[in-house]
TrEMBL record:
UniProt-listed Pfam families: MFS_1
Gene source species: Naasia lichenicola
GO molecular function: transmembrane transporter activity
Cellular component terms per the entry's GO annotation: plasma membrane
SUPFAM superfamilies: MFS general substrate transporter (SSF103473)
Alphabetical UniProt keywords: Cell membrane, Membrane, Transmembrane, Transmembrane helix
InterPro entries: MFS, MFS_dom, MFS_Efflux_Transporters, MFS_trans_sf
UniProt-recorded name of the protein: MFS transporter
Length: 444
């Protein structure tokens, strides 16, 4: 596998700038090694340690139930609206409120808990997910359901700020892209199994039972987390002679913020359409309500394919992958608006849309970790989590406004426009992002 950070300290050391970059890269690598038992064996034995597949699969499972919990209202939108006597756009606001809570609390909670055990925080957040799903299942009114979503959002923001950097602590730098692709694959699996299963269960037995089933799944992965995941030392250690730099002065912060803006734009455009995928599929796509779960299953499978492609090609062509996938999402949204009529057409085009977008989250998470110094990683994880969740909430809000004022048929057009802006920004700021942290970021 190519070097994850994509640079050669020895080769670049022939220039003064190269020497500085090599020293900085060496310092970052040493800091990473000091926080990861697996990485330490790289220097002591000179061999690559075993890839911790089972531990990463447990973490992927925790991410699976987290993402499934977040997007349950999307799968159950028509059912919840009918049962509680509110509009579909108002149910869409449940996604906005959840994501808004994450956006507002992720960074402060990450700072407040930065000295606490990563494993303990995973256990606490998963416990809150289980409780919030049970409370959602028994919510008597829309307002009560809204409050349970706020509770879930509080846990979700901290969970993602911990889960991403936690994966990095289990592997060596060379294994990072594979580890992130595997763990974020849990999010893709949520759209393959979690969301379609919830939709099928909701249409067959009611939306409340879907929340109960999700609470049971969360509890199962909570137990696995307690049993299988190790406690890790996440605190960065300075190398000999190094001086601690305040995070606000860390030069990699600029690279992280540029990635965050790309995430915000690309994911907002995607979610403006995705939040209302169920009503669009029925009303515009002409698909029977009984087949919506099949459409969502196909969408999820295609998203997993996108994540797999990111794992296979992401190390070799990271910039090309991101710069192609973004515009491809916009093109697929336009094609759905023009030709998405009938079950076959809807399934095929949605799978192409999902494949295009499926590789972006793992690639953007990996790009963020590439561009972050080791001390910055916990905060950078919360920044990217905040960006993704602002995008989820903002996308749901924008899609709802378009639905109410222009109609469902316009939603994919608006979605495509926002994604194009995001793709253009990502391409235009590529050199500035790389320059902000050249030793680690220029491959991603």
């Amino acid at each position: 596998m190519p070097a994850l950070f994509g640079f050669s300290a020895a080769a670049s050391a022939h220039t003064p700038r190269g020497c500085a970059e090599a020293r900085r890269a060496s310092g970052n690598l040493e800091a990473t090694v000091s926080t990861s038992p697996a990485s330490a064996s790289v220097l002591t034995s000179g061999s690559e340690p075993a890839f911790p597949v089972f531990r990463l699969l447990v973490l992927a499972g925790a991410i699976f139930v987290s993402v499934s919990s977040e997007f349950l209202p999307t799968a159950l939108l028509p059912n919840i609206a009918a049962d509680l006597g509110v509009s579909e756009s108002k149910v869409g606001i449940l996604v906005t409120v959840f994501a808004g809570t994450v956006a507002l609390t992720s960074i402060p909670m990450t700072i407040l808990t930065r000295r606490h055990s990563r494993k303990a925080l995973l256990i606490i957040t998963l416990s809150v997910f289980a409780i919030s799903n049970v409370l959602s299942a028994i919510a008597p009114t829309y307002e009560t359901l809204l409050a349970t979503r706020v509770l879930g959002g509080l846990a979700h923001g901290l969970f993602w700020a911990v889960a991403g950097p936690y994966a990095a602590l289990l592997v060596t730098p060379r294994q990072l892209a594979r580890a992130i692709a595997l763990t974020t694959g849990g999010g893709s699996l949520a759209f393959i199994l979690g969301v379609p299963f919830a939709a099928a269960l909701g249409f067959a037995l009611g939306w409340r039972l879907a929340f109960v089933a999700m609470a049971v799944l969360v509890t199962a992965f909570l137990v696995l987390t307690i049993v299988a995941l190790p406690s890790v030392d996440h605190r960065p250690r300075l190398t000999t002679g190094a001086i601690a730099v305040p995070l606000r002065q860390d030069r990699s912060l600029r690279a992280v913020l540029l990635v965050a803006v790309s995430v915000l734009l690309l994911a907002t455009g995607h979610n403006a359409f995705y939040t209302y995928i169920a009503p669009w599929t029925i009303q515009i796509g002409g698909v029977s309500p009984d087949l919506v779960s099949v459409v969502l299953l196909a969408f999820g499978l295609a998203g997993l394919l996108g994540a797999v492609l990111a794992g296979v090609f992401g190390d070799r062509w990271p910039r090309l992958f991101v710069n192609v996938a973004g515009p491809a999402v916009a093109v697929m949204c336009v094609l759905l608006a023009l030709f998405g009529h009938g079950f076959i057409a809807v399934v095929v085009l949605m799978m192409m849309w999902s494949t295009s977008f499926g590789g972006l989250p793992p690639m953007l998470h990996t790009r963020n970790l590439h561009g972050s110094s080791v001390p910055m990683r916990a905060i950078s994880g919360s920044i990217i989590t905040t960006a993704f969740n602002i995008a989820i909430g903002l996308g749901a809000l924008v899609g709802g406004v378009v639905l109410d004022h222009l109609g469902l048929a316009w939603v994919p057009w608006v979605s495509a426009g926002i994604v194009i802006v995001g793709a253009a920004f990502t391409l235009a700021t590529d050199r500035a992002r790389i320059a902000a942290h050249p030793a680690d970021a220029h491959r991603g």
